[in-house]
Amino acid sequence: MSDALISARDVTKVYHMGAETVHALRGVTLDISRGEYVSIMGPSGSGKSTFFNMIGGLDTPSAGEVFVEGFKLADLNGRQLAWFRCHKIGFIFQSFNLITTLTALENVAIARIFSGVTPAQARTDAAAVLDRVGLGHRLHHLPSQVSGGQQQRIAIARALVNEPAIILADEPTGNLDLHTGEEIIGLLNGMKQDLGITVITATHDMKMISASDKVVWIRDGRIDRVAGKGEVKITVGSIDGDTVA
Amino acid sequence: MAARKSTRLQSIPEQGQIPWHVAAVVSWAGLRRRLLRALITMSGVILAIAFLTYMLGTESITAALVAVNDNALNVLLQKAGVDIFSAGQTDDMMVMLIGLSLLTCLVGITNSMLMSVAERVREIGTLKCLGARDSFIVQTYLIESSLQGIIGAVFGAVLGCVVALVVAFANYRGYALANLPVLALLRSILWGFLVGAGLSIVAAIAPAYMAARKQPVDALRVEE
C-alpha cells in the first residue's frame, strides 16, 4: 500500500439486476495524493459514479480494495462509516441536496452537529463558513429563497464545515450557468490551495478540467487514461483526450 | 477553519449519538413547512380522539346522573335514550366504533408518514452522507409523528369533552351542572391524550425504520 491519501486497488463492482449481471467496474487501480484536484470523466454508465461513491464510503467493491488515509473502507461498520463521512468527506451534489425545510445556517450547522460539537457552537462555526463562501448576509434564508449559485455555496459551506480531507463533488456545476459555475470552481480551487483539501470531481465541465491537477477517464468500468496538468488539450467547446498519449 | 489536523488515527471511531432535540428541530421545521399535510393528518387524530373522549365523557356524565336517582332526572335520562338499569355497562357497539375510528386514524398516520419517507429519500441520503446515524433518522420520524399526534390529541380530547358537556347540558339542563363528574371528565381527557399520542408513535415505527434502512447511495440515485 502506498502513502497516497486515496488508494484504489483493482476495484471491481458487479451488480445483479434480476437475471442480468452488470459490471460497473472491471479492475480500477488509482492513487490520489493529498491536496490534488482530480477530475474524473466518463460517459454515464461508465462506472464513474460507482467509483466516486466508493471513495465516499457509500458503496463497497465486489472485489479489490479502497483505502482512504490508510483505512480499508470495506472493514468499517455502519457507525464507523458515518464517522468517516462526517469527518473526512465533504459531499457536494449536482442538485445541491440542501434540506429544503432548513435555513442556510441550519443546513450547515446540522453537518457540524453531527461531528459532535454543541448546537450553539455549530451555529457559530456554520455562520463563519457561510461568511467565508460569501453568504454571510443569507444565513436565515431558505434554500428556495436564494439562487442556484448561492444554494451550491451553502452546500460547499456544509461540505467544508467539518474540515474534511476530501471534497467529493459530483457534477457541481451541472445545474449552474457558465458564470456561476466559474465562481464555484474558483471557490473549490481556493479550498484546495488555502486548506490543502483534496478535491475530486466527476464532471463534463471544461472549465473544471482546466483547473485540475489530474484528469482520469473511465470507460466501460476501466481507467482509460490519466492525464496530468498541462497534458490535456482543450479545444473550443470540446475536449480531446485521445490525441495525448 | 483552523490549520489542518495532522494527527493520524489508529482506527476510525464510531459516530456518536446526537442530542434528540436536534432531531426535534429538523422534525419541527419539516412540519411547519409542510403544514397542510400535517393539518390533514392532525385532523384525523382530532376526530378519532374527540370521538373517544366524547364517549368516555358522556359515559361518566350519565353514570353520575343515574347515581343521583332523581325521578324527574330519570325521565330526562330515558328521553335521552339512556337505559338507566344498564348504565355503567360498556356498550359493545360503541367499543367497536371507537376501535374502528382509532384504527382508521392509525392507518392514516402510517400512510402520511410513508408518503413523507418516500418524498424525502434524497433528504435521508443527504443526512447520511453528512454523518447521520440510523438512529437520528428514526428519531426525526418518530418525533414528527408524535408532534402531530400530541397536538391533534390535545385538541381532540378537549373538543370531545366540550361536545360531551354541551350535549349533557342540552339534555339534562341544571342537573348536569349540579352533578358534573369533574375528575372523571379530566380522566377521559387524559385518556384521549394518551391514546392519541401512543397511536401516533406506534403508527410511525414502521415508516421510521424503513427510512433509516435506506442506503445513502440509493437515496442519492433518486431523481427529483
Question: How would you describe this structure to a colleague?
Answer:
The complex is a heterodimer of chains A (245) and B (224). Chain A has 245 residues and is of the alpha/beta class. Chain A has a single domain, classed as P-loop containing nucleotide triphosphate hydrolases (Rossmann fold), CATH 3.40.50. Helices cover 33% and strands 29% of the residues of chain A. Chain A contains seven helices and twelve strands. In chain A, the strands form three sheets. Chain A has a six-stranded mixed β-sheet, sandwiched between helices. In chain A, α6 (178-195) links the parallel β7 and β8. The two termini of chain A are 27 Å apart. Chain B has 224 residues and is an all-alpha fold. Chain B has helices spanning 20-33, 35-68, 71-79, 92-119, 121-129, 134-172, 174-178, 182-213, 216-221. Chain B is 79% helix and 0% strand. The two termini of chain B are 33 Å apart. Residues 1-6 of chain B have low confidence and may be disordered. Chain B contains nine helices and no strands. Chain B is elongated, with a radius of gyration of 24 Å. Chain B has one domain. In chain B, α1 (20-33) packs across α2 and α2 runs antiparallel to α4. Chain A binds chain B through residues 53, 56, 58-59, 69-71, 76-80, 82-87, 89, 91, 93, 95, 97-102, 106, 110-111, 113-116, 119, 128-129, 132, 142, 158, 160, 162-163, 195-196, and chain B through 1-2, 4-5, 8-9, 11-16, 18-19, 21-22, 25-26, 29-30, 32-34, 122-123, 125-134, 136, 215-217, 220, 224.
